[in-house]
Amino acid sequence: MLTDLQNLCPQTGDGNTTAVLDRNSTDLFDNHYYKNLLNGKGLLSSDQILISTDEANSTSKPLVQSYNDNATLFFGDFVKSMIKMGNINPKTGSDGEIRKSCRVINS
Does 2-87 carry CATH code 1.10.420.10? Predict the structure, then answer.
């Protein structure tokens, strides 16, 4: 994986090269992302950490394993999460603001 990324994104590159987040399943929506993590092929360290720390063993790793083993569970939970996100009521008008930089409140 590291060698693949080093070839794709050399240090002398312009920084505009992209890499797929879900190897071997780039054109499908499925649970293969979790298979990649369990095989040590997560693209980002923030992804791979879901299974690679002591804390992950009791928190996120069991969920990653469940989604890897059970695509029906993954799809069902995904549907539930999309419904929850769709029900979020964003602040509008004077109740909120669109930030010019997501890191700081507009001044």
Answer: yes
